[in-house]
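Exam prep: given the inputs below (a chain plus fe (ii) ion), describe the expected output before reading on.
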Amino acid sequence: MNDCRGVPVTGANQSMIDALEECHLQALAFYGDPVASCDLILAEHPEFIMALCFKGAMLSQAMETRIYNDFVETVRRAEAQSSKANTRELGHISALRSWLDGDFHGAVQKWEEVATAYPFDLLAIQLVHLSDTLLGDIVGQRDSVARAFPLWDESVPGYEFLLGFYSFGLEENSDYYRAGQMANQALSIRPDHPYAIHAVSHIMEMQGKAVAGVKFMNQRRNSWADSNFKIHLHWHTSLYHLDRNDTGQVLALYDQHLSSDDVEGEKYEELDAAALMWRLNLVGVDVGDRWKHLADKWIPSATDTLYAFNDVHAMMCFVADGRNEVAEKLLNANERYLGHANDANTAMSRIIGLPFCRALSAFAKEDYDYCVDLLLPRRYQTHRLGGSFAQRDVIGWTLLEAALRSKRYDLALALANERCGLKPTSPMNWQLVARAHDGRGDKIRASQARDKMSELLAA
Ligand SMILES: [Fe+2]
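Solution:
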């Protein structure tokens, strides 16, 4: 049997293949619960290899220890079916084993081999693209799609999702024009496409189009505000408001959408909430007791050492809420882990994860000099942490704020000028330039920068 894109599937009839396609659609279009839906299929067909591969793939991308037992069991069950699997399925199973063993880059290589041999395997392409995003392989985010893209067209089911992946990959590689074209085409096929909306939100973020960004997100609100991607898309909307220094609106969005009462929130909520609160911390906003609730959510994963990207967000909460003991635990766990581990996350933690955690701790202790010393030599290696440019911007912003607070105004001006060079339409960036000029005693240039900021806010 083949799936709707002509990719071979072992041990399945048409209704099983259709049911699995529906699970995949839920994941691609961010609705329902793809893992729970897949569990229903597996309850009836426990040896369905591609269903096991799909479930394992979804769990791999979660980067959480709380799903770990389920992940281990799913991979074990898939491996038990290896003798019946075709080469495509063997590739998926082998990739999952590599991921489970902490060899994330090896897993990507194996999914890439599958996608090269089966260029219509949308799941394999998706996994390479998303894993490259998690691992900070910027070029790979784009080229994972480019390899197969010319073979696809609108007649292939799911083409709009390939366009969405390509759009985000192009955006992360600063090709905003083509990224916009791909996103628009994806949205013309499926308006209800949160990943394509997300790609547009990144394009606008990187281009400093805050007003247009808010407008776009509000206009498209019906197609993403109930999706499984809503928290991250609210976070993106908050960034536009923050760029215009509208911190009241940022806090309102935070309270409405990024601060559920659950003790165990979604990972996206925990990550994005921490990232947003830390930015508010940088601009000096009193966020009340919001850190406390958020820090509680991060406590269970303080010593996971699973994914450096998670650790730095946990650290933001611990140091901002004065949880010095648990912050120390996180640092110690990472130091111990780096002493003996050799999985893919080791390099991510050593190069940027742990230094940034230490820098956050230094910042909270008002040791801004040390914070600068830690971050300055690493600022062009931050992509090794994974995530997007928009997410990692918090590192450069922390460095600049620490430079200002440690009165290293020449450096602060250089860094603020860099930010303005990249995003000259950002009022927040001009405010940072003005503060650096203030520090250097250049009242004329400080005033000019503030005029520029006011001009942009008025526009
Ligand atoms: Fe994003």
